[in-house]
Each structure stands twice: as C-alpha cells, then as structure tokens.
Amino acid sequence: MHLLKHLRQLNGLQGLRQAIRQVSSAPTKPSALQYERDPQPLFTDAETQRLLQSMTQLNLDRVYRKRTVPDNSSEIKFMTNEQLDSEFQDMVVRAQHMLQMPPIVEIKKDVERVIDKDPALKDFANTKYVFTDITFGRRQSERKVFVRETDGTLEHATLDTTKRMNQLYFPLEGRQSYTPRMFALEELLSKCLTEHKYEFILDRLLVQYEPYEAEFHNISARVFEHLNESKQFDLLRSTRHFGPMAFFYAWHRCIDDLLYDMIRRDYLHNAVELIALSYKVHNIPVEYEATLTELDKLHPTPAQTALAELRSVFRRPEDKQGIEQEINTAIGKTDQDFAADEISLKFIEQYIASEHSLKKVQLELAVQTLKEVNREKLLLFQGLKKAHGVQTS
Amino acid sequence: MLPIARGIYGGLVNITRNSRGAIHTASGFRCKAETSTSTDEKDAESTEVDGDDSSSSSAPDAKDRSKIIPVETSMRYLKSAAYKQTYGEDFVWTQYRRNHKGMYAPRKTRKTCIRQNRITTGNPCPICRDEYLVLDYRNTELLEQFISPHNGDVLSYSKTGLCQKSHLRLRVAVQQARDSGYLTYDVPFREYDYSEYYGQQQKQKA
What we know:
The complex is a heterodimer.
Chain A: E1 3-7, H1 10-24, H2 40-44, H3 46-56, H4 60-63, H5 81-98, E2 114-117, E3 129-133, E4 145-148, E5 153-156, H6 159-169, H7 181-184, H8 186-194, H9 198-208, H10 214-230, H11 242-251, H12 256-264, H13 268-281, H14 289-298, H15 302-311, H16 323-331, H17 335-353, H18 360-388
Antiparallel strand pairs in A: 1-3, 2-5, 3-4, 4-5
Helix pairs in contact in A: 3-11, 3-13, 5-15, 9-10, 11-13, 12-13, 12-18, 13-14, 13-17, 14-17, 16-18, 17-18
Chain B: H1 2-20, H2 30-36, H3 39-55, H4 71-79, H5 81-87, E1 114-115, E2 118-119, H6 126-129, H7 140-143, H8 157-160, H9 164-179, H10 194-198, H11 200-205
Antiparallel strand pairs in B: 1-2
InterPro entries (chain A): Ribosomal_mS22
GO molecular function (chain A): structural constituent of ribosome
GO cellular component, one term (chain A): mitochondrial small ribosomal subunit
C-alpha cells in the first residue's frame, strides 16, 4: 500500500467551510417526504427493476439526443445489412446502459471510528493530518482515509472528508469541489424548478452528490414533489430518472397524478405496472402478477420496440406490405394492443374503485374518455378490416 | 418642467439625426429604446443632455461609457423593439467586422475598447459598441448568443470579434450562469457500479 502523507491547512479552511454550510443549509433542509426505512432491497428487487424499466420506456431519439459535448463527432460508414443489424442491436444495448438508474439507498450516517488514541502525540502540530490511500485502481468506496487529530487521536475520516479526498486525487468529471450555487441557494433552485429544468437538476445532482448523502435525498425529493405538482412527467420519460421518480411516488402513495398522465397518453400497460408497483411496495394483498404476465405476453419490452423501429429501415418501399400491417399503422394499434388495453382497463378500474386511489373522479373521467376513443378506434379498425376482407382470427 | 421638456426635445433631435446615420454603431438606437421602454433612463438622459446644453448645444457624447447600466435594463432592452430593429434576428456579433490592415486579421483582438470610461477606438467590439448589452450571469439571452450550439463552448473571439476584456467578462459570466443554473449544459454521464452501493448480496448475484 502506498500511503501518502497529506497535510491540509484545516484551521484556515474551517471558517470558509462553515460559511458554505450555513448557505447550503437552506435548500437541503429535510423535505417532507423521506424514505423512512431502507428502500434498497425493494428497489433492487428484480421484479421492481423490470417494472421501472418498462415504465421508463426507451425512446432512442431522446436517449441519443444531440449533446453539446466537446466530442460529438459522427462517423459515416458503408455497411451490409447484417452489419447494420448488429450495429442496431449494439445501439439498443448502449441506450439501455445510458438509462441506468441511479441507486436508491439509505442515508449513510457518520460513525466515529477511533483506531488509536495517542496522548503522547498531543500538540505535535497545530493542524490535522489526513492520510489517503491512493493505490491505483481501487474503488472509491474501498479507499481508506484516516485522520490524525491534533490531540493525537487516529481515526477513520468522516464521509465528507473521504469524498473530498477522493475528488482531490481521482476527480469525477463534472463534480465541483464546492457546493454549486444552484444547490446552495434556495431561490436559484426554485427558479430552476419553475423553469422545468428537471433533467438538468437531476443530472447535476447525480454528478455532484453520492446516492447515500442527505443532500441527494433532499434535493431529489424536492424535484419529484415539484414535478408532481407541475405534472410535466413527460420531461423525464426515457431518461434515467424516471424509474426513481416512479418508485418515489409509489413509496409515498402519490401515484395518482402520474397514473392520470399515463392514462391520458394511452400508456395503459405502464399504468398497470405503476399500480402493481405500489401494491408491491405497500404489500397490499391484490393479485397483480397474473395481469402482468398476460400483458407481458401481449406487449413487447421497450428494447424490442426500439429495435423493431430501427429495423424498419430494412423494409424496402417497393415491398408490398400486408394490408393488415397497413391498417395497423393507420390506426396505430393492433389486435394485441386492443386485447391488452381491455385487460389493463379492467385492472385500472379495479384500482380506482379501491380505497387506495385518492383522485377518483379525475381518474374515472380519464378512463372514460380513453374508453370512448378506444371504442371508436376499434370500430374503425374492424370496419377497415372488413372492407379489405382481412380475416379476423 | 422646463429641463424635462428640453430633454425630450434633445432626444427627438437625436432620433432624427441618428436615423439617417449608419446602423453599425448601434448606439444610435438607444435613445429610441429609452423612449419606448424605460422612463427612469429618460430622466437620467435628460439631465445629461441638460449638462451638455449648458456648455455646448451638442448631443450627449456617444463615446461616453461612464454610466453604469443595470442588468435589468439590459434584459429588457434585449426584448425590446429597438433591439429588434438594430440587430434583427441575428446575433449581436454577426454583422460585426474587424478593422485591420492587410489581408489577415491579427490573431488576437484588441485588449479593450473602453479606456477611462470612454470608447477609444473607431470600431468598438460588439459588446462595447452598444452600452445596453451588459454581460452578467442573469442576462441569459445575451450569453446564449455566444455559446456554440455544437459543443457548448464559448465562441472564440476570432469569430465574435470581442475585445479581450469583454471576452474575459463573457467567460466569467457564462461560468457563473452555469453554476447558478441560469444556463443549462449537458452534464457528463455518470456510470454507477451498483456493487459499490448495494453491498455483498448484489455482488453474488452479478
């Protein structure tokens, strides 16, 4: 192990840091909604993850939107169809990787871990000594940092110090050594929120803070609460923040607005998944697995949909599409979709009728309008089929 | 009552005089901007005109930059009709051309356009020529004009023609605006190693 002796002028910085703390205390005050117990086991559960990923959806245009980063050069290549297909598959895999959800873990408390008290070393210097292990290739969480206090105590460094030392020797791109003013000042954060810069705030939050820090929880909770009021959920759809957001709402029993949004946009299977998630989180004895498996059979996963969309370039224009396909694209729905809608609507209505939903009237109305639209679509669909003489199986 | 009236008269004279003049100085339109947008400015202007009137009956010194324009005024100016008339849909720097001898422009632009609160050059840079363009982190509409849509960097002075001093102030303002969330940018992607956060059971699964 390669220990590096490192001396910090802690006393000099103390005043400054305190000043920063005072400023930063404003927006990071504990929000009303906190995870009261460890959310990690529920969040990492395979089924929860599957539900959240399905809810996030995968819109390749949004994932691969043009970013203003120093290197965003593009490359033009000639490819055979097979090469192109494998490239498409890679692209979907990479997109899924870009949608990696940030971990949701408990707030870590600082514990004082004293290794040794050596009164003989008292007043050996008037500053603390920080020892950091800077071995190459070690993970951040495994890196050991110790502090020798001026009174001769040798102890493990606090989380704050550890993070600062890690940032000093192995900087994370985009992380500031100071609290960004956006997070430090209440009015700036609320200004960003009113301008609906949710994705920017959350992206920046991920880079600036670790998931186990109190600030991370407070600020993300504030963003999600604000989002629940402004109802701009579509801004986060198919970003990495949608899953944590849905999980947050499910945990705090306020899924109704998100549900309403999903019904309005005709993402019924997502609505079912959201309800199932909330049942799962709160251990409500309602059978939802059967509905989910039925829906899964009828609905492709987001990755499959994205891949199918990409592969549509292989269809040559002169190729005769089946008339059935043409009808499907005209209506925007297939037989399977109609079947899936029926199952999901039944499940959603069951939820609305139960005591768990809070905004019954609104949801009922949304469901009613959707039903009418769907009925019209179905009539048109069947009419078109009949007119073209397509056999209904 | 009298000085105010005289001030308004002075402004009118200015307008008529400047509407004939060249557009590229841009400062000619500031009087119009004032009459249409802000009243407090007009008062200030009128007193200034007053002072000038007592000594010589000429228009206020167009090269004088001693008055500090607040950012709020600048932000209003950028939304005003006067601004629109001056610059149209272009950025403030698009129409600007540097003056230099020979074929090639010097690599760097001039150090500063304003010395001792006066414009000391015949061809001041796009920011200095129009005193109502104030570089500040709150003035996002102005700052956005100097940011490349391709890579998110501040455009070089070789493209925009800003003097070195304005360019430095621009970079500072952009940095501040990004730090306080006035301007958004693409935050680098952070990849999580889940095993670092979820402990042992996850490790076994993976």
